[in-house]
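Every protein is a chain of amino acids, and every chain bends into a shape of its own. The fold becomes a row of whole numbers, each drawn from a learned catalogue of backbone shapes. The protein below has been through that process, and both of its lines are reproduced in full.
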Amino acid sequence: MFHAHQLTQIENQAASCTRNQTEHGMESSTTRSAFGCAVAALMLAACGDDAPTALPDGDEVRAIVRTCETAAHGMNPEFGRLTSANPAAAIVFVNPQASEQTDPRYYEPLGDGRFHPIKVLVGVATGSIVTVTVPEPERDRVALLYDAPRADSTDGRYTMADGEVQVTFEACDDPDTGFPGYFLVAGPRCVELEVQLGNDVDRIFLPFGISDCR
């Protein structure tokens, strides 16, 4: 299970954050739920004046929107912790197969550069609209796969070009909303993401194939 927030710590940071200051927060707790093994995520919380990475023009860059109508309903235990206090607190990433994906070979590409998709359920706080962006330096190693329907694949493997670099998740008004989808990750690593809620942007790190991002 990927935690992109630690509520008390982040809320304290948000209260003291000024226009040109950045503070850092870390969570290393592990919990269990019906989704299985939990893994820690390192979160870097930024002040609200920081801007997300701009997306260049061109058809090669894919940005999509997942609306409430495309959500999967059913409360996950982690969703109850979500709050719209700041971007990192409004979203959670849950990987039900994290304990099975520690083998580095799981992240190796096939000969033609296609990767195994890693299932990650994204939870978003009630009524919130959160945008997740893969920063440009990460885009040859990380992609999101949340379009519906997804790109065709004969064997369930995808190239980075099949995925998205930005996904906006529009939660339903009630209850907290889950969006099924996948990550494409080239090799075990800490995946860096930018999450935006309104004008506020936080930077988070999620571990794939490793125990944590410290």
Remarks:
- The longest strand covers residues 189-197.
- Residues 7-208 form one domain.
